[in-house]
Amino acid sequence: MAHGKETPRQKMIGMMYLVLTAMLALNVSKEAVKAFVKVDQALTLTVANYAKKNDLIYKDFDRAAAENPTKAGKYKTAAYAVKERADETFNFMQDLKITIINKGDGPGNAAVSGREVFTEKILKFDDSNVPSEILIGAAENGKANDLHAMLNEYRDFLITTLEGKNPLIEESLRKSLSTEDGISLHTGEKERWENATFQTLPMVAVIAMLSEFQVNVRNAETEVLNYLYTQIDASSFKFNKLDAIVIPNSNYITSGSDYEAQVFISASDSTQQPVITVSGAQLPLDESGKGIYKVRASTVGPKTWGGVIALKAPDGSTKTYDFHSSYVVGEPNVIVSPTAMNIMYAGIANPIDVSVPNVSPDKIKISIKPGTGTFSTEKVKNPKGVPFKGGWSVVPAAVGTDVQVIVTAEINGKPMQFPPYPFRVKKVPPPVANFADKSQGSVGKALAVAQTMVFATLPDFDFDLQYEVTEFVLFYTDKGSDYAEPSTSASLTSKQKTILNAMSRGKTLIFKNIKAKQGTNKPVEVPPIVLTIE
Questions:
Q1: Which of 135, 257, 386, 426 is the most exposed place for a label (fewest CB within 10 A)?
Q2: Is domain 339-426 classified as CATH 3.10.20?
Q3: Is the pTM higher than 0.85?
């Protein structure tokens, strides 16, 4: 009785019920009443067919739940709850049949075998007292009242199981399992469902009526089971387009590394477009329904982004799927290497900048060929105090031994080592001593007298190397004799200051035996300073 329409068999049953009532009103013969045996046999066959059909549906639920418990599990549970209620209601009616027949024909009769009933073997098939006594009883305490309540509960349970999602099946259930009061054919007045359905009917007609209700119970079970089974895939997407997708881990690889890509089939539905949002903004879609995400890179470093894809499912609900991705922004650069000038200076930190195309700086490491020097992340500064861009510094061990820098980069999650990059090692040029910012020439006496120290520097050298004068000797000539006054630091001694004050214009001022050191290195000899006092 799908979608609220009665089947030909149900129409026939209803018609037979009206005919039976009319026949009873006319006191027709026993032979005419016994014709309802065939009606019950047909109904019993229908019940058996429904039972077989429902068993197959339950097996479908078992299979679906075994294949996908998450998707089909709850519907299998609901289906077996329907089975439990249907069996309970069906068996209650079967018990009523057996009770009525045993009451009429007595225990051990041929019409009852186990839980089966054979209406053609009922002896008191036209007895109308026993059915009314059991079903109607006195003071409305008959079993028909219990049947009335059970049918109502069964119907309401099935409607609740539908969750309001199928009004057509609900209407069908209300009709096939209706327990509304009827109209008495004798008085024409409203009559309780129990009385209108069973009172004064002969035994075989009551058995046929109970069989009809059993048919309706199984038919209602079938309708709800079919609905529940369709719900397993009701929210599943139906796709009509397949595309081959290739996503490489990187579009740029180097010789000796592996090219790796994911290859798979992507399914889509060309009849509807997804809604893709990133940071609350909806992405435009291309002709194939793919979202286009575009953002200008304003800062360097690793970046993460993501959003939500929303798609309407066949059952009308909206499914959402989160996604996340990342990328790295690097500074645009061109590397020009003077291959004939790959030089480092021994004993000091030489800044180097290492980059690998399409590899984030944090995925790059370096090492030095053992015995040729050391390396660190120290930021080396230029003479103006500004750090060099390079991320590392290398300190060669000695002049004459080439330094080999070995770069290792993490590519596609695996470390890859590149061939060593060689540098020639040269000696740091000697510093130049100066007094009053001069190493030679002339100097005014007032300026010379104002000085307090001798300095050593590396003019025009790219590294900010600070030298400290450790000692020097001031030479001067007075009255035809040569004199020498030493200092064990960079500062002028009091005697040296006295000498400067006494020197007249045209005299020669000489600083000799100057030694200076850089950092913790040993002092080195510095060329002398020769100046004329103006």
A1: 386
A2: no
A3: no
